[in-house]
Amino acid sequence: MARDICLRQLAGRPRTRVELARALTRRGISAEVATAVLDRYDEVGMIDDAAFARAWVSSRHAGRGLARRALATELRQRGVDGDVAKAALGELDDETEAETARALADRKLRATRGEPDAVFRRLVGMLARRGYSPGVAIRAAKEALAAQSAEAAEFAERIDTEALSDAGSDLDRESPLDT
């Protein structure tokens, strides 16, 4: 029965060992049986948390535009070990993350109307909710605004990116996502 539960879980999408263990516990499978089945699945390669983490980071960054911090939270929620998660997240470099943030800001900007300061706040807020650091979010929003119109470019020129990034980084250090 435990094997069938695991196979059904794995048929939908790849799962971490912790996710499978939780499913087995919910179905009333004893810890000893669960451990034996999960160990066997580990041996034959049906469970691979490292491969899961790499695939998760790649797909969620490309598909949803999530930043490393948001991805780290999702991996932690799925029971991926911290070192395994760190290795998978290491494959996402700063430049790629900044490019993705800018593309998200550009896309959001096309559907956003209003005064440049309100639009700027919306863009930064959207990027922050996706896990981008204040510095990356502010720079991406400023660049997107600057490319939009003369009025928006004038507003963007007045934004002191470094000062805002420094103020935001103080808040960023206190983020519950990093705990």
Automatic annotation (TrEMBL):
Cytoplasm as a keyword of this entry, yes or no, is yes
Q: Which UniProt keywords apply?
A: Cytoplasm
Q: Which Pfam families match?
A: RecX_HTH1, RecX_HTH2, RecX_HTH3
Gene3D superfamilies in the record = Winged helix-like DNA-binding domain superfamily/Winged helix DNA-binding domain (1.10.10.10)
Q: Which domain of life is it from?
A: Bacteria
Q: Where is the RecX third three-helical domain?
A: 95-137
Q: What is its main location?
A: cytoplasm
Pinpoint the RecX first three-helical domain residues: 2-40
Q: Which family does it belong to?
A: Belongs to the RecX family.
HAMAP family, alphabetically? Answer: RecX (MF_01114)
Q: What is this protein called?
A: Regulatory protein RecX
Organism, as annotated:
Salinispora arenicola
Q: Which gene encodes it?
A: recX
